[in-house]
Amino acid sequence: MRLPDIKPYLVTRRLIPENQEAPIHFISAAITPEQYFYRRNHFPYPVISEQSFLLSIGGEVKRPLTFHYQDLLRMPSKEMTVVLECSGNNRGHFRPRVYGEQWEGGAISQGVWRGAPLRDLLKLTGLHAASKEIVFEGHDYGKRTDLEGEFMFARSLPLEKALHPDTLIAYALNGKPIPYKQGYPLRLIVPQWYAMASVKWLRSITVIETHFNGPYQDIDYVYYPAKDSDAGKMPVTTIHVNSIIQQPLNWSVLTTGMHQLYGIAWTGTGFITNVEISIDGGERWEQAAIQKYPGNPYSWTFWSYIWAAPKKGEYTIMSRATDSIGFVQPPEARWNRKGYGYNAYSTVHVKVD
Amino acid sequence: MRLPDIKPYLVTRRLIPENQEAPIHFISAAITPEQYFYRRNHFPYPVISEQSFLLSIGGEVKRPLTFHYQDLLRMPSKEMTVVLECSGNNRGHFRPRVYGEQWEGGAISQGVWRGAPLRDLLKLTGLHAASKEIVFEGHDYGKRTDLEGEFMFARSLPLEKALHPDTLIAYALNGKPIPYKQGYPLRLIVPQWYAMASVKWLRSITVIETHFNGPYQDIDYVYYPAKDSDAGKMPVTTIHVNSIIQQPLNWSVLTTGMHQLYGIAWTGTGFITNVEISIDGGERWEQAAIQKYPGNPYSWTFWSYIWAAPKKGEYTIMSRATDSIGFVQPPEARWNRKGYGYNAYSTVHVKVD
């Protein structure tokens, strides 16, 4: 008899446009398979045409150029394992609640991206001395609830991040052309930043001498610490140090005896140096074993911890990651009105029966 | 160009054993397609063999008999559209939280079941006068966290419910053999009761003169109103009157203007007579339009309500169903330690932007 096929699925947060998260508690592969890669869209999927294979670079450059997909394939390339995390990941865990897609912990995936460094393209176009930001526009566009009209998805990077040798114009994921839903044919990949920066279906790059203020730069993807004013607003940029307990599941019932707790940890500032586990709701902490994914600074780190559940009762298990810059996950995430950058301890309640 | 395939998936609550809920907010078909039918298992899937096609009826009967699957196909049959709802549906919404699978609203599905009425089989075996309950055993078995040893999944029905003409030994779902994960080849179908009563992979039926006290009868599927004692325990039986707002989604952002709110309502006691909607958190209620699924007393009822979102702001939308017996959804579900029978108002928070 054929064994039954039991597998997890993406978790649907919205269908129009498609927003689905990875079943993060049920996948342990280092490289997220395509069918479990989270999908985050502001708009309907764009139509792919011959135009989609062209990438124009213009604005404050010395020699505006248009690259064809084939040109990029012929350039020197880099391959990097990169965590992509939606800045709204875990939005559903903020208290007070915030509006927007109620992501739990699965708006995160890891893949091997290959592409040409953006800086190599910009060497060919040249930059004017007063250049300040670079704007990246995708082929996807549509309406917003708060403004009239239609908008392209467009984001900018400061010059320094754009010129980092690991900021890529990617054309491959996991050794194959980028899947359509992940930005085929060309996607900007910005390691260490939340993934709104990694613009999908990339169509144009424009160098500007001012600050870009499109709505996906200056309205969304901004931390607003106050509920009713814009005081203290700050752009969303690097990924906060973070971890998740993948197993055991929250509110699950376990037998007494040995259990392996495990999960992942990641950061946009340096690399993970430590993951600690508490079994008693944060009173005492012990070190987990950590296993860095080899040879790459932008990948997540696996952690595990063997717990000999001593006796019946209720337990609150927490994980807390530290990175090489010294950032540590906080007990409470910094609340902000649009719900970005959540990184409080991962917490799981279990009952030993 | 082929349009992108965008579809919802089952929501994984646990994989070993498989427990996945329907993406209830994203399906509006009256008959739940097989790939979206929720899956609730206590144990690994049983192996199907020739034995699986035999159904024995014994215990306090006059003539113990074994029926073959083919015998059942030849008997007079009934076809009924039935809501199956896990008694733990919405367990994740209880406050204080309770342990167990954290079902949200999707542990519910509707299908067209065909089978032979159990009472016709029992006419052939006869019953002794002192018969009190009938025990149904499935082929699935395994361990529990709280007791040593292995257990079959077994449940009993009082004689009156077992002899109801609509209690079926089903062999078909939606015009085809029952899918393996839904109990192939034979499943007991008990309309109006929570679905733990509808035993999958049915292997034996035993008439007894006492009360059956297996762990899935007397430990699980019991309402325990107190956290730390068993005082006031009551068996889980009929489905509570209930409704769900499928759209809009909780914590979503809407434009001003017209929106269709819609969902389903169902009950195990009679049929749905009214669904009311509140936009202001339960202060004022208005009637929704309801559309009974034709010709069947055990199916769910669709409801819809057109809302002209008047102005920007935050709104708390609620639905409340009433059935023909007079039961009304309560504002708060009756808390119980194992989290069964949740049926508080369905509540959705939206922001009009």
TrEMBL record, chains A, B:
GO molecular function: heme binding; molybdenum ion binding; molybdopterin cofactor binding; sulfite oxidase activity
Keyword Transmembrane helix: no
Any single Pfam family the record assigns to this protein: Mo-co_dimer
Cofactor or coenzyme needed: Mo-molybdopterin
Domain of life: Bacteria
Keywords in alphabetical order: Metal-binding, Molybdenum, Oxidoreductase
Lineage per the UniProt record: Bacteria, Bacillati, Bacillota, Bacilli, Bacillales
InterPro entries documented for this protein: Ig_E-set (IPR014756), MoCF_OxRdtse_dimer (IPR005066), Mopterin_OxRdtase_euk (IPR008335), OxRdtase_Mopterin-bd_dom (IPR000572), OxRdtase_Mopterin-bd_sf (IPR036374)
Residue span, Moybdenum cofactor oxidoreductase dimerisation domain: 237-352
Keyword Phosphoprotein: no
Domain Oxidoreductase molybdopterin-binding per the UniProt entry, residue ranges: 42-215
Alphabetical list of Gene3D superfamilies matching this protein: 2.60.40.650, Oxidoreductase, molybdopterin-binding domain
Listed name of the protein: Sulfite oxidase
Gene Ontology biological-process annotations: sulfur compound metabolic process
